[in-house]
Design a protein that fits this description.
Isopropylmalate Dehydrogenase; ten-stranded mixed sheet; two-stranded antiparallel sheet; 12 helices; 12 strands; binds 3-isopropylmalic acid; binds manganese (II) ion
């Protein structure tokens, strides 16, 4: 018996989460385990009604559960960032889910936007650091002219660093700082090497921008070098983030396991989603290997499609499979991925994003049925 916290969230969140639960229930009957869903209302409606984003009691309850299954967050009625930071990022940080795991795999039966690329060409995994970098939220927005001390700092910064003697009085500035800690980098890099070994990969690619943001990313590189010494069986290489976006398109077959700081990981995994056939197919896991992990599609709440029963639930269903794998139901997890693949390959049930007419619930039904038919 597993106890799973469910946060359907905003927009299409509730619809896609329903299908995810449906498929997990189907596989649980077959594999003889039970799931109890404990639903939480966090999201735009709850926030607008009560002013609350999350609450301490809920977090304490969830701490004792096996995992969190999340739909999507974001709503046009709420200023951008409030729900995303106040709920999604808050959960990632609270539960110290330091790995954001994002498989990029082109399934059979899915059209790839890259010419001549086949399922065997696009099959890698991105291990995104999930608690540091620019996501720590350290920064400021100031009118430096209002504060003499700040004014002096900015003036000397400009003159010492850039040799400029400019008038900065009244100048409005902002800054945001990326932070990488030894502990934070080490644990996620080690996770990536361990995962590579488990997957039977021969190479880990580490992403950075050490040619420009040298303080943080040279440190990141040095930790990759250090950790790699414990994995002589796995080679490693460094890719600059701008270059990797190019290689994703040109030679996706090169990649096996990728490890990346948070911000770059956010960006390259949206590109990853596209080359695996679209956001409707891309799942993610926010993992704390020693704590409570959270699983979600990597796409957003798509308010435009909310309540219309048209969204593709596959990313969420696949995220459900990742959740089962993490809690130890590996066979059930594999079955779900197999069922997704079979339904896509048959091509009879396709949602709008895949060029078909099937609804969200029809897609969920088809995968649930397929899962039951598997050996
Ligand atoms: C993601 C999302 C989030 C992120 C947002 C919604 C805070 O884009 O999961 O990739 O930036 O991590
Ligand atoms: Mn993102």
């Amino acid at each position: 018996m597993y106890r799973i916290a469910v946060i359907p969230g905003d927009g299409i969140g509730p619809e896609i989460i329903n299908e995810g639960k449906k498929v997990i229930e189907a596989v649980s009957e077959k594999e003889n385990f039970e799931v109890e869903w404990i639903e939480y209302p966090f999201g735009a409606d709850h926030y607008l009604e009560t002013g609350e984003l999350l609450n301490e009691d809920a977090l304490k309850e969830i701490e004792k559960m096996d995992a969190i299954y999340l739909g999507a967050l974001g709503d046009p009625r709420v200023e951008p960032g409030v729900l995303e930071k106040g709920i999604l990022l808050a959960l990632r940080f609270y539960f110290d889910q330091y790995v954001n795991l994002r498989p990029v795999k082109l399934l059979e039966g899915v059209e790839c936007p890259l010419k001549n690329k086949k399922p065997e060409d696009i099959d890698f995994v991105v291990v995104r650091e999930n608690t540091e970098d620019f996501y720590v939220g350290i920064g400021n927005h100031a009118n430096v002219g209002k504060n003499k001390q700040e004014l002096e700092i900015i003036r000397s910064l400009y003159s010492v660093k850039f040799g400029l003697d400019i008038e900065v009085d009244g100048c409005e500035i902002t800054y945001q700082i990326g932070v990488i800690s030894r502990k934070g980098a080490e644990r996620v890099i080690r996770y990536a090497f361990e995962l590579a070994r488990k997957r039977g990969d021969s190479r880990v690619t580490a992403v950075d921008k050490a040619n420009v943001l040298s303080h943080v990313y040279n440190f990141w590189r040095s930790i990759v070098e250090e950790v790699s010494k414990d994995y002589p069986d796995i080679e490693h290489e460094f890719n600059f983030v701008d270059a990797i976006t190019m290689w994703f398109v040109k030679n996706p077959e090169w990649y096996q396991t990728i490890v990346t700081p948070n911000m770059f990981g956010d960006i390259i995994t949206d590109l990853g989603a596209m080359i695996q056939g679209g956001l409707g197919l891309a799942p993610g896991g926010n993992i704390n290997p020693d704590g409570v992990s959270m699983f979600e599609p990597i796409h957003g709440s798509a308010p435009k499609y909310a309540g219309k029963n048209v969204a593709n639930p596959i990313a969420t269903i696949w995220a459900g499979a990742m959740m089962l794998e993490e809690i130890g139901e590996e066979k059930a997890a594999n079955d779900i991925v197999k069922a997704i693949e079979l339904v896509l390959k048959e091509g009879k049930v396709r949602t709008k994003d895949l060029g078909g007419k099937a609804t969200t619930s029809e897609m969920g039904d088809a995968i649930a049925k397929k899962v039951k038919e598997l050996e």
